[in-house]
Structures are given as C-alpha cells and as structure tokens.
Design brief:
The complex is a heterotrimer of chains A (539), B (337) and C (309).
Chain A: H1 11-26, E1 34-39, H2 54-60, E2 68-70, E3 77-79, E4 82-87, E5 93-98, H3 119-130, H4 145-149, H5 152-155, E6 156-163, E7 166-171, H6 178-182, H7 192-201, E8 217-223, E9 227-232, E10 245-250, H8 254-262, E11 268-270, H9 274-282, E12 286-292, E13 295-301, H10 311-320, H11 323-331, E14 335-337, H12 360-369, E15 376-381, H13 393-406, E16 409-414, H14 418-427, E17 432-438, H15 445-448, H16 469-480, H17 484-501, E18 504-517, E19 520-521, E20 537-538
Parallel strand pairs in A: 1-10, 1-11, 15-16, 15-17
Antiparallel strand pairs in A: 2-3, 4-5, 5-7, 6-7, 8-9, 9-10, 11-18, 12-18, 13-17, 13-18, 14-18, 19-20
Chain B: H1 2-29, H2 46-55, H3 62-74, H4 88-123, H5 128-141, H6 145-159, H7 183-190, H8 195-230, H9 233-240, H10 245-275, H11 277-282, H12 288-298, H13 301-329
Helix pairs in contact in B: 1-13, 4-5, 4-8, 4-10, 5-8, 6-8, 7-8, 8-10, 10-13, 12-13
Chain C: H1 2-10, H2 27-35, H3 38-55, H4 57-60, H5 98-133, H6 135-151, H7 154-165, H8 169-196, H9 199-207, H10 211-247, H11 259-266, H12 275-302
Classes of the chains: A alpha+beta (539), B mainly alpha (337), C mainly alpha (309).
Amino acid sequence: MYRTNETWGTRATWGAFAILCAGLATASPLAAKTLVYCSEGSPENFTPALNTTGTSFDAARPLFDQLIEFKRGSTELMPGLAESYEVSADGLAITFKLRKNVKFHSGVNGFTPTRDFNAQDVIWSFERQGKPDHPYAKVSGGKYDYYADMKMATLVKNLEAVDDYTVKMTLGEPSAPMLANLAMDFATIQSAEYAAFLSKAGKPEQFDQIPVGTGPFSFVAYQKDAVIRYKKNADYWGEKALVDDLVYAITPDPTARYSKLKAGECHHAIALRPADIKEVGNDPALKLSNQSGLNIAYWAFNTQKKPFDDKRVRQAFNMAIDKAAIIRDIYQGSGQAAKNLIPPTLWGYNDAVPDYPFDPEKAKALLKEAGVTTPLEIDLWYMPVQRPYNPNAKGIAEMMQADLDKIGIKAKLVTYEWGEYRKRAQQGEHTTAQLGWTGDNGDPDNFFFLRGCAAARAGGQNLTKWCNKEYDELLAQAQKLTKQEERAEIYKKMQVIEKEEAPDFKIAHSIVYESMRKEEDGYKQSPLGGHHFKGVDIK
Amino acid sequence: MLPYLLKRLALTVPTFFALMFLTFVAIRLVPGDPVEVRTGERGISAERLAEFRHDLGLDQPVWKQFIDYVWRLLHGDFGTSVVTNDKVLHEFLTLFPATVELSLCAMLLAVAIGVPAGAFAAVKRGSWYDQTLMALSVAGFSMPIFWWGLLLIMQVAVKWGLLPVGGRIDPIKYYFEAKTGFMLIDSLMSGQAGAFKDAVRHLILPTIVLGTVPLAIIARMTRSSMLEVLSEDYVRTARAKGLAASRVYGLHALRNALIPVITVIGLSTGGLMAGAVLTETIFSWPGIGKWLIESIGRRDYPALQGGVLLVSAIVIFVNVAVDLLYGVINPRIRHGQ
Amino acid sequence: MASDQAASGALAPGIPVGNVALAPGGLANFWASFAENKGAVAGLAILIVIVLLAIFAGSVAPHNPLIQFRDAVRAPPVWETGGTWRHILGTDGLGRDMLSRLIFGARVSLFIGLMVMAVSFVLGVVLGLLSAFSGAVVDTIISRVMDLIMSVPGLVLAILIVAVLGPSLFNTITAVTVVFLPRFVRLVRASAMAELGKEYVTSARVIGVSKLHLMFITVLPNCLAPLIVQSALGVSEAILEAAALGFLGLGAQPPTPEWGAMLADAREFIRSNPWIVTMPGIAILVTVVSINLMGDGLRDALDPKMQRS
C-alpha cells in the first residue's frame, strides 16, 4: 500500500518525476532509459544495518556503498569508499584511506549536502550500531543483528578518525574475515550530515525510510507493496549506472512476476516457479542466468534416538530414497543432487566421495542386519516454508514417505510453525527432520561446523546430534590453519568420514535462476545471492 | 430511535472488551513468536532473543501485558507493528480503502445484476430463463472462490493476457499520491492518461470473484421476495385496476420486495469488507484481509490484535446500521417499543 | 434422520405437531413434496453417487491415492495430447493418480462436512434451548458469546483457531464448528422462543412436565424443520470453509488427499499443467452444488411457510 506524504519524496522530486513520466509516455528514442526489476517483496526500510533479509538489502543496494566491496558477480574484494586499506603487521589494526570527492545524493527529502563524504560518516555509521548512546541508536527499532552476529562489538576495540580521510580500526585480536565482513551490507556507510539535518527537523525516523547515500542511484520514492523508484546518480564515483531510472516493481506472486516479464513490463525477475523457468528458457525474447547456490538441503537423522544410533540404519535410509526423482520432480532443474555438505563450487569439495546408490533391496538387508523390525514407525519433519535450498519440503517429505514405505518404514509427516520448527528440531525432538543451510562467507568451515560436536548440544544447529571425535578434531584443526591447501585436505578427509557415518541424507544444492529480457545487458549474477543493477544497460 | 441506538451501542461495549481479551489470549497461545519467526537457519542467540522480547514487552507477566494493552487502547493507541514498525492504526487506515473499494465494487456488481435478474425471474416464473438463473445462482453460491479466482487468473490473465494477474494498478506506468486511498478516485485525480482505465482493469477480476456469492444470493432473495409480494392482495388489486404491468412490477412490487434484500445487502457488505481474505490473497490485493493473514503468518501480535479488533468493530457497527436502516425502510418495524 | 425425529415428536402425546412432514406418516408426503423439485432430486442423485464413491473409494478408485507413479509425474488427462487411460484425469506433481485422489478426497470432505454439522447441531440445540429456557442471565451470556464469535470474520477466526491448535483434520473440524455454531444456536433459540408462547407449551407446563422434558421433547421437535434445512446447507458451507483452510495450508495434513490442499499444491502448475488446478475445484463445486440443491428441496418440503422456489 502506498504511504502518506511524510514518507514520500519532496515536492521537488515529485516535479522531477512528473517530467520524467511525461518523457516516458512519449517514448522517443532519446527518452530516459528505465530498467524495471520485478522483486519479490517490500523492504522493511533502507538501512541495511537494521535488516536481515535479502529483499531489504537489495532495496538499499543501489543507494549505498561500503568501505570495501565485492566485485560484481564474485566474492572477490575490491576497494569501495576506502581507496586503499592497510593491515598492520600484527593484524591488530586496519587503516583505511578514504576516497575523496564522493558526493552524497542531493535533493532527496529537501536535503542538500554541504560537504563530501568523509571519516565522520564512517564513524557515524558504525557507532550507530555499536554505541547505545548514539543519537540514532534507538531509531527504527534499533536492532543491529548482523553487527551482533559478526561479533563486531567484541572484535572492534576502537574506531577513530585520524584525519578527514583516514580511519583507523583497532582490533582485539587478528581477524582474517574482517575485511570481507566490511563488504557486507550491514557495513554500509550513511550520511552523518543527513542524520543531523533530520534530527534538527525533528523527524529522525525518516532517516531509514527516505535514504540518502553515495550509491550509483539516488532514491526517488517508495510505495509499500508496490514500487521503489531510483534515478541515476550522475556524480557517482565508481562504475556508473547505465540507465536513467531504476524501478523495483514489488511483485510477491511468482506467477505474476513471470507474466510481467513475458509482457515486457519488467526486464528482470527472480525466484520464478521451476515450471516457469523452463518456459523462460524456450522463449526467444527472454534469457536465463544461473549460479549454484551456496547452500545445502539435508534430511537429518537424530543419531541419539533409536534406531538411528546404528550407522547401518542411517546408511539404509540413504539407500532407500530415490534422490534423482526428488531432483527431477521437486527441484525441476533448479537443483543438483548433493552428496557432500558443501556445494561443489566451494574449495575443499571432495568429488571422489561416492554417494550411496538408490537400492531399496540393499537398504532392507541392512535394516535386517541392524536388527530393525519392520514395520517401523518414525517421524519425518518438514519445514512449513520454502527455503532458498528447498522449494517444497512437503513434496520431498511425501516422496520420501512413499519410498520409505517400500522398505517397511512408516513415516509420519510432522511440521510446525517455522520458528517453532527450528527450535524444536534444534532441541532434538525429532527422529528425522529436513532442514538446510545457506553459507554466507564462502568458507567451508561455515558448513562443516554443522556436524561438529559443539553444535550437537541440545539447542545447537547440528540436527543430527551426531558427535564424532575424529571429525570434530579435524574440524578444530582446520580452523587453526591458515593455508587453504592444507585446510582443503582436512576437509576432504572429513567428507569421507561423514559419508561413511551418514548422519544425514543430503538432498540437494539449489541452482538459483534469474530471468531477464534479451534487451537487458551486462547483468552479473552474484554468488552471494544479492542483486546489483549498476553497469546494467537496456539495449 | 435514539434510545434504541444508544442501547444497541451500549450492548457492543462488553463485546469489545471480551474481544480484546480473547484476541489477546488467542494470539499468545499461537506457537512461535514474532522474533523467532523472522530468524533464519542461523537462529538467534538466547541473549538477543531475551533483549527482543523485552523490547516488545513479551517478558512481562501476561496480565500486565494485557493491562498495558488495554490502557493504551483506551488512549487510542493500537500499538506498533513488530514487522513494519508502523502504527497499527495507520497501517489499517492505509489498507482499509483498498478493501472498501473492492467490496463496494463487488456489492455494486451483485446488486446491479442480481436485483433485476432476480426480479425478472420472478415475473417470468417457471420459464427457461427462471430455471437457468436459479441453476446459475446455486452454482454461484456454491463456488469455492479461491478456485474461481485461480481459474479466472489462469484463463483471462495468464492464457489470454486480457487482464492483470493482481495488484491495484500498474505502479511502473502510473504514479501518483494516495489522496483518498481509493484507486479509482486517485487515478482520476492524478490526471495521468490511462491511469483510471488501468485501475479499472485491475479491479475487474477481483470484483467478479468477490461478487459471485453475493450476486447469487441477491438474485435468489430478490426472486423469492418478489414472488411473495406478487402474490399479495394489493398487487393483485393494482393489476385488476389495470395499471400497466411495468408500473406494478416496478413501483409497487419491487419496492416492497427489496426490503429483505436490503438487509442481506447490508449484512453482506459488512461481511465482505471484513472477509475478502481469500480474494485479496489470490489477487495480491493490498487490503485488510491479506494483511490479517500475513500478520498471523508473521506472528505480528500488535497488528493482529489491532486488526481483528478494528475489523470486528466494523462488522458490529455495520450490523447496527443495517438494523436501523431496516427500521427506516420498513415502517412496520418500530424500534424501542 | 427425519423419521427418527418424527418418532420422537410422536412421543409427546396430545401435543400438536406443527409440521406436516414431521408428523407420523408424513414421510410419503415429504417425499412427494421433495420430488416436486427436480433440481433437488438431481442434487440428491449426484450426492448419493458421491457418497457411494466415498464409501467404496477403496474398490472404485483405479489406484491407491498415495502411490506415486514416478514414470508419469504430471501426466495429462486422457483427452489431452499425451494422456492415457491409465490415469484418466492425469496425475499430480508427485505422480499420484488424480481421479483416485479426488475419490478419496470425497471421503475427507464429506467427513468434515458431516462432523461439523453433527457437532454444531448437537451443541446448537443444547445451547439454543438453554438460552431460551434458562432465564435472562444464561440467555445473555450465550447470546453475547455468539455475537462475539460472529463479529470476527469467519475465515480469520478459523485460521486463528487452527493457528492455536495446530493444523490437522480434527482441528479443521473444530475451527469450522466454532465458526458455524452461532447460527445454530440463534436458530434454535429463536424457534424455541416462538414456540414458548404457544398454547401447547403452556398446557404442558400446567401439567407439570419437567423442564428437560419440556425442552427436548415438547418444544424441540417443533423447531426441527428449519434446523434440518440449516444443517443440510451447513454441510456444504463447512466443506467450502474447510477447503479454504486446506487451500491456505491449514487443513488436513499430507499426504491426505484433501481437495483444498490439492488445489494449494497445484498453484505451482497453474501455467504449465492447468488440469491439476482445475480438477479439485470441480470436485468441490459439484459436491457443494448437489448438497445445496438437495437442501433447497428439503426446505421446500419441510417448511411450508417458506416460499417454494
């Protein structure tokens, strides 16, 4: 629904917009180029530090920059608002040299910046998240989840402006991932001057609703559940926007997204239904891009409950399920069968590990050998919601149920409300449960800890509650090493152990598809799942 | 009249209090909470959860939460949505016009077609027209509207591409301020060429879907009410006196036949406003019904509490209004006696 | 059912029964009157077929509704290109035979409808009569509670109840029953109030009939006609409401073949495989239409006060 006046742009931007619309209507060859992206939901606000959802990050992304940035379409780091950075020899200090002549957007919400971006803005943005007495700490709910999750408060001992264009960050201990953390959305740099301007006007809550940033696009307007409008920032310091206007058409229904894309009402759409993606591939006016998701969908066996304490039973279950059919009928092309915990695109992946064959007869024999009397009743939990790694946990559960029935296992399907589901599963209330994981920093450890002993405690994220000494020791060993090759060797060993022990049944790694019209050019799909439209053109 | 009105309104007060209490309790019995539901696989640490719950006041004893809630309600504060950080009342008021617009259009469709169709069927009682109409009306009020909506989307919107799949207007092409919240009016006032037409195009399918059941009911009601009136003495007299058939049916009969129909219209309008849940969900129509469903899914306690209370208030007041209206139209009923 | 109640009506000697159809020996009259309405007869016929299908689903359905034909996932129905007689109406997203699922689904839907009706009927009679007979305090409490239930939109209330209790077949029935209860209570109360003023009630009171006897044996039989009609129509509405819950994922749990849930699962294939969406909807529509047609006939036959249509 659209908002009332106070959250809309100023009269000035309104006027500008009217002119723009008139331009669109006449559609001459010189008319402004508009790129329309059919997004899936409304952002909560435009301050990434406050948010945790990809939808909100995507909405803020055209507007802002970070000190360090991910190269478009990769996880490689490159300088952002920091022209350069230097890590001290002891690893305890990082010094950032800031870029000069970077302008904040002018004319949004009646605000005209009087100075360029400088160290004050960096300090302001981090202190808002870290200092409870910061004037904006409590604005818009004042919860900074990523800042907390990344342990920024304990990692960063001090942050100071050496001069206007130099910022020094002092760390409590050396932290290799810190630079990558600073490229994440929560570390976005916002305008301290704009914040002061709004405080003075008595409207601080507008700070997160009518954003002012340094990014390639500036904010025009936002109508909740309908549309977000941006326009090109001609003064942008970096890779410039190639279109004049960027529109996020908020379209929660996947069928509607496909219809709009097909009708040319949007140029770019995400998260279409698998059945529709096939049609996009066959449509000469459309094209697809895809990327293996950094994720895993699995079905965990609670190894602390009978009969799953017996390795043979777990192996039997692995052989009883027709994985190929699940990939074909549920993922319908947007997933690949998984045999290891990490996706094959991640370093350390052990491709030599053979997956269990689909062999119900052998499964039956193994069950018999393990002394399991059939029919055996178990619980099979499935998530009530779609996840990036699993489009339809219910469908998978129904397929598993049918397959298990053939080896004499009666599975009862169980689900709870999503929050409740995770809580109960982490407590180990299930006998078997589906879940999955989405990695967020590209490090294998970010996946392997899921089967470690620390996570196997009640309430921990290891739903198998499997605690294998050898595996756990290797996990700890790899954490301490710094050389990637050495770590990779250890991870390969761990994958062999884990496969043999079979604490879970690995279902799939999803393949993320994005669909666009042929005339869209220059888009690079991010392995981290975000969407960037700078450098994208309409031909 | 006035004492009756006051009495009716006074009677709603305990209902409201009970409603406040029940929604409050029911929502706290729903498993899951607004914090947990928003965290992903990563989960949330116990300390952070406690902090969140403290901020939402969820760590207080339930009775205290309730007293706080009532106290704020009495001051007109319905609370703030946990998800959008927007005032619940404000959110409700921005969404409500969408629901009203859709309900009124649906009801207009139902009346505009239902009344003449039903009246005509009564006059032509037993004809093939009458029988077809009655068959259609049974199908109409037996319609599972969520399926009906999907079917129309599938055929009209997806296959033939004639009308949009959902939403209220194409926000990419048309862009203007929400002055009234009613898209038809706003689009006209915007002065943008084609905006009004686009708003109408978006309205057609949801209106048909939401209007189907009331249409069927109104057609049937009108028909049977008309039949009853037609068999009454004064109509026979009028006909015997040689009044033209159109005058008899039009003025005398239809007017009297409409009295019970108006009650149905009134009551179902209240119901429609509150209960366009399925239609709004299917057509991504940003109204109250869709909002309530989503609030349940997100465990947004304040939005859900405030929303249910406001919606129920509307239903109750519409019912009172219909009662009063009924008394005005039908002189045989006098309230307060 | 009608005959049982006719018998209980006869138990109260000397009390005139106001309804032709419920009078002893009125069954023939009732049927004659019912049969006059062609639509009602057609509805009854279709309903009987559906009920028989539901009862004998095990032997009628071509396949087990839970078996997944992995070689024929999303097979089209026989009349479409690529359709085969093995799956006359095609298969769903997991390769389960659509026709068999629809037939077994009839069981679920009819069960829900009947259960809701039965429970609301009994509770409605008890609460309604209590309300009419037990003085102002009880009456006010019951009436206000019913008002309260009715002031919350039906589907929202049902969803809330299911959200509290957790989704299951049983809880669907509970939720829909709560939503429907006020109608029964109000109907019974109003009919009973109307009867209370009549002479036979006064005379029964004078004779010194006990209150329970007065409530259930003297008055109730005379309120039954509209109640039966309401119940019949209530079954169809309960089926619709339950299907709506199923559609929102809050009804019977998988792999139960419930029509509303089947529709919800099918949404994914709205563009690519439309028949998966179409079939369950038609099943719901046909069932509800036939019950409503029959209900109309019942009303005409049982309640001569109402205009015949």
